[in-house]
Amino acid sequence: MFKIAFIGQKGIPVPQGGVERHVEELSIRLARDGHQVFVYTRPRFVPKEYKKYEQVNLINLPSLSTKNLDAISHTFISTLHAVFKLNADIIHYHGVGPSLLSWLPKILNKKIKVVSTIHSADWEHQKWSLFARLMLKLGCKFACQFADETIAVSRELQKYCLAKYKKDVAYIPNGVSLPTKDKGKILTNFKLQPNKYLLIVTRLIKHKGIHYLIEAFKNIKEKYGNDERFKDLKLVIVGSTAFTEKYQQYLLRLTKNRTDIIFTGVQTGVNLNTLFKNAYLYVQPSESEGLSISILEAMSCGKAVLVSDIKENLELISGNSQTGAIGFDFQNKNIRDLTHKIELLIRHPSIVRKVGLKAKAYVKLYYNWEEIVDRTEKIYKNVVLVKDKVKKLGPGFNLALAR
Q1: Complete domains list, the chain, with CATH
Q2: At what angle do helices 18-32 and 293-300 cross, to 10 degrees?
Q3: Could you say which of 10, 33, 212, 356 has the lowest number of CB atoms within 10 Å?
Q4: Helix (H, G, I), strand (E, B) or coil at 54
Q5: Using CA atoms, how far apart are residues 222 and 224, in angstroms rounded to an integer?
């Protein structure tokens, strides 16, 4: 069993964020398997008093709480702590930003193994400055060059690393836990009817494309608002900002005086499950993704999804030769096409239900956390045990033989 330090996430439990959800699910299961797991948290997101979550140890350290320096400053301090105080066996960086420092443990203590997970092509996200994007792209390069093992959460990210940096990284996707309870009062609180609303769950960030969905929804209500199938339809937007308050204000201006477009803020647990399970359709218009956990969550609830046709989204909904497509797509950034696809899907509820059930079965089979944890543990064993064995045998030893 290993002593594992997770660095890069805001912390756990945190109500929103794909990286944070990934770290939470992974760390809890690794701790149950007997590993000593330590997750570094930031004071803005997790109270300092929280020392334990499930069986996971929480270490709260300070950061420079600004948009550009929050993550990297916390990563630097956490790395020093993991090396000198924790004496970890493995430091696992999450995200390309934190992976900028994936070289540091190797200088400070060569016995510590480094794993980096690339969750998204963050350098494509519009909220970052040009300099920040360059640093994030460099972080991806460092993750490929300096980590003992690199993980990508999507096939597209895996292909990118191979093409750009000649690095054959491991593919381990995000997972999803199938929901059970859906008895929250949130439908009543927001005056929602089952199967009468479109849903999106995301941070309010421009590259998530929420403005495209709002405009498409407004178009539909303007054209078909008197039709019984569209009259009571609402759009529910779940999530909050991430240093993106200006974008939030823009969205509020787009929806001013509308009662059919609802911002619920962040929702978790039973309330979030209730929103997923009672939605008619889940829509995800993002311009850039790694591997969207919210799409997986919608599918796990038996919901059909309509997503932008970026490669990472198509990877999720393409299914396989047995299932066929398990979701629908529209042309990225194209409001007219998005409007048309939503209209078609509202008019064909039987197809929507059928595809949603196929998606649920597919996600249960291919994106379950138990298998993801097993594959991650194999990565850890490989970097700690096999790589040490290779060192003893000498540089000419073929790693494939050790496996």
Answers
A1: 3-175+368-402 (3.40.50.2000), 186-366 (3.40.50.2000)
A2: 70
A3: 33
A4: coil
A5: 6
For residue 30, what is the enclosing H or E element? Answer: helix 18-32
- Looking at residue 6, what DSSP letter applies? E
Residue 6's DSSP bridge partners are 39, 92
* Centroid of chain to Cα 173: 10
150-201 pLDDT, tens digit each: 999 999 999 999 999 999 999 999 998 766 666 778 999 999 999 999 999 9
3-state secondary structure of 98: helix
Contact yes or no for 238/264 (Cβ under 8 A): yes
Of 167, 168, 177, 109, nearest to 141 by C-alpha is 167
Helices (H) and strands (E) in the chain, counts: 17, 14
pLDDT digits (tens, 9 = 90+) for 187-213: 999 999 999 999 999 999 999 999 999
Q: What is the three-class DSSP state of 320?
A: coil
Does the bond joining 13 to the residue before it have cis omega, within 30 degrees of 0? yes
Q: Is the backbone of residue 228 left (phi > 0), alpha (psi -120 to 50) or beta?
A: alpha
Is residue 345 classed as helix, strand or coil in its secondary structure?
A: helix
Encoding tokens for residue 223?
Answer: 């054209």
> What is the DSSP pairing of strand 90-94 with strand 113-118?
parallel
